[in-house]
Amino acid sequence: MSATPPSARLADDEHLSVLGYEGKFDRSMSLWANFALGFTYLSPLVGVYSLLAMALSTGGPPSIWWIVIVACGQLLVSLVFGEVVSQYPIHGGVYPWARRLWGRRYAWMAAWVYIWAMIVTITSVAEFGAGFITSLFGIELTPETTLFTGLGLLLFALAINFSGTKWLARIARIGLAAELIGVIGLGLYLLLFQRKHEFSVFFDTMGTEGDGSYLPVFLASALAGLFLFYGFEACGDVAEEVADPARRIPRAMMMTILVGAVSALFSFAGYVLAAPDLEGIVAGEITDPIPAILESTLGTVGAKVFLVVTVLAFVSCVLSLQAAASRLLYSFARDGMLPGHTWLSKVSERSKVPTNALIVACTVPALICVLIYFNDGLLVPVTSFAILGIYVAFQMVVLAALRQRFKGWKPAGPFSLGGLGVVVNIAALAYGVFAIILLAKPDSGGTFFQNYVVLIGLAVVLVSGLLYLFIARPDRKSTAPEGDAREVAAEIRRRTGRVEVQAPRG
């Protein structure tokens, strides 16, 4: 890596002006609040709870190693994103990064896929969270209670987001504490005091491979990790509300991955080792094993306390998702790339948040919740598309960054990988393609729609985005900068007067 003098940096507003924008937001978000936002979006508690049974019934206890594999792969992606956001600390994340690294049309498609993936992710989390909220208050879980509880969760998050960045940061920190208690605290307790199995069980397939090879089975259980490790990019979605974002956001993204990996490992391992009937879970006879594990290890009162922690985590997760989606919509609209862009790009004078974009980030998921009420079979394809869509959007940025490097781009932000940048970029792209193949691989044994539902969902989003792009031509209405990575890097170096020197060894 290269080292630069500590004073060789642009002030936040000057850096923003170099990128062609004026500051309209309060920079009240600290490093820890930014990390909390990304971590509660990533939400290992939500991920482990949602996928533990599926992972164990598909690949057995060794499926835990997908947490390690995916964490390493996504850490590579976060390093690439870190260099990009350090040069471009502006709202919207994936959209402005793709635009400034490649161009308007390319960014349109990346953002179109990413917007829909985020919208349906908000829907999925609200739907899954409804089950915990009804359980906490002793309400029977029915399609009606799921709908109204999910809508209530969306509206509650919207009200908090309307209040401003400070409240967003406060609730994100509360959610972070709930996540850490719920995953690391409980995981350690289960590992230390409630362990019923040996650690060697994580190398025991428990017959999941049948009479064939274990490799296909292990690959099929990849969702155990792939579902967990996204959300770190949300740290960059709110860049213009973070003080010293060019330095802090890359650190926050990497912290999100690393702490998320440790949390998920403790949680997953704790549940597996404390399971009173692990064989039944692996055999698929117990489809929702965590309540039974909690009841047997914590008792009725302890299980209820854990439900409170879980509900806090879900609230914070929906809050973070809404905030990230609204900033992406705002960034997209600010450049004139969406219908109603003037309305969508308005920022409240009082709270300094994009209120209209927040309304959309609440209303569209609410409408999808209503559709799921009338057809509950939509929830699984909606969730599956969310994961694949986000991975596709991520890799469009990684590919664009690699393309610019081959054209001579050397990132000029305070965070730089130096000569390792190209190697890390290629490795991140290779990992991403591998992950997308695993996610898009059709199932077998069901109907055509069931087997190909994820690919069908992605195809619908891609085709609709392309049709709008080439019919409405939103790219022609936008004059914001594009494809200027090398020029901006040169201007930043000119203004800072930086001269790269080799970092001292040892």
Overall description:
This protein has 506 residues and is mainly α. The protein has helices at residues 12-18, 31-42, 44-59, 65-87, 94-101, 104-136, 143-162, 165-193, 215-220, 223-226, 234-237, 245-274, 278-282, 289-334, 341-344, 355-374, 379-406, 421-440, 448-472, 485-496, and strands at 2-3, 501-502. A two-stranded antiparallel sheet has the order 1-2. Helix 7 crosses helix 14 and helix 17 crosses helix 19. The radius of gyration is 22 Å and the shape is globular.
Task: Estimate nothing, just give the exact number of structural domains.
Answer: 1
Q: Tell me which CATH architecture applies here.
A: Up-down Bundle
Strand order of the largest sheet: 1-2
- In CATH, the homologous superfamily goes by the name Amino acid/polyamine transporter I
Give the integer mean of the pLDDT values: 86
Q: Approximately how much beta-strand content do the residues carry?
A: under 5%
Query: What is the radius of gyration?
Result: 22 Å
The termini sit apart by: 13 Å
Subcellular location: Membrane
GO molecular function, one term: transmembrane transporter activity
InterPro entries: AA/rel_permease1
Protein name: Amino acid/polyamine/organocation transporter (APC superfamily)
